[in-house]
Design goal:
By secondary structure, the protein is of the alpha+beta class. The protein has 4 helices and 14 strands.
Length: 320
């Protein structure tokens, strides 16, 4: 598998260090966390990672190991455009992409009359589009019409943290994310089992065809899909494989020391609508990657988590 620049787009010529420095601001909260729409994951032990010879060795997903977690709650769906819009309306929050004045957009989603854009050297399908941000996903002239229930994109780790703080929640740790994404299935590739399309049915929004030039959209989607597309996993979570990458709170452990002046990378999980097995199979539940916390792209989103009281332990293969 070729190392997938569909994941990280901090390419030569467009260093993210040029983006403004950012910390999570102090924002008013919306009140106690709304637990509707959150799944309760009981305390217990699960097997994290993978023992199969797949994925990039440098990603650090092997070997598998047992991890113990207290009970927690996690959003069943990624945060939608409608939910993020409510946050912005309540707080006046300005995202990293809006402050910088640009974000990365997949070239195949740009309209035919889009003006000239700068390409990332190692991944020319990524274009620097001035004016692209969470409410203008393809840049000037684009909008969220018909996409209120799609996941918000063009959000940095700092933007996700700010939303979570306002919502009375937090970002999940990497271990929490994988435990919830597995849905009680230990050692399986995907949230529904080992086969990508059992009985010929698609269970996630990824690339079909030849990346990056032809997407046959056999799963019914080009670009993002609604946050509750496809069937949920055993814990009731939707779209943990494909659709959009999801920020986690955890540092990306294979980059222990960031260069001076650059924030340490943060874990991203789940893959996106651009993943394809021939290029980047990081839509498996054990797969992991990382990105600069200031990174803003058209395939990066998040879901929130929250602490929960201690609950009954779960066993591998069971559901709460």
């Amino acid at each position: 598998m070729k190392a997938g620049s569909c994941c990280s787009v901090n390419g030569p010529g467009l260093p993210l260090q040029r983006l403004p420095a950012r910390s999570t601001p102090s924002l008013p909260t919306s009140g106690p966390a709304d637990l509707d729409g959150m799944a309760l994951i009981p305390a217990g032990v699960f097997r994290m990672g993978c023992d199969r010879d797949e994925g990039e060795p440098a990603d650090g997903e092997r070997p598998s190991r047992q991890v113990s977690l207290p009970a927690f709650r996690i959003d069943r769906c990624a945060v939608s455009n409608d939910a993020f819009a409510a946050f912005v309306q309540a707080t006046g929050y300005i995202s990293v992409a809006e402050e910088a004045g640009w974000s990365f957009v997949f070239a195949g989603l740009l309209p035919a009359d889009a003006g000239p854009t700068a390409a990332v050297a190692d991944a020319p399908w990524w274009r620097q589009v001035h004016g692209a941000c969470w409410h203008r996903p393809e840049g000037p002239g684009s909008s969220l019409d018909g996409r209120g229930r799609h996941p918000v994109v063009h959000v940095s780790w700092f933007d996700a943290q700010a939303y979570a703080q306002w919502a009375g929640k937090r970002l999940p740790t990497e271990a929490e994310w994988e435990c919830a994404a597995r849905g009680g299935l230990e050692g399986r590739r995907y949230a529904w089992g080992d086969e990508l399309t059992p009985d010929g049915r698609h269970h996630c929004n990824i690339w079909q065809g030849c990346f990056p030039g032809l997407n046959t959209a056999e799963d019914g989607h080009v670009g993002t899909a609604p946050v509750d597309a496809f069937a949920p996993n055993g814990h009731g979570l939707y779209n943990v494989c494909g659709n959009v990458w999801e920020w986690c709170d955890s540092p990306f452990s294979t980059r222990l020391h960031a260069p001076h002046g650059v924030a340490m990378q943060r874990v991203i999980r789940g893959g996106s609508y651009l993943c394809h097995d021939s290029y980047c199979n990081r839509y498996r539940v054990a797969a992991r990657s990382g990105n600069d916390p200031l990174a803003s792209t058209g395939h990066m989103g998040f879901r929130c988590a929250a602490d929960a009281p201690t609950a009954t332990s779960f066993a591998p293969g069971s559901t709460p």
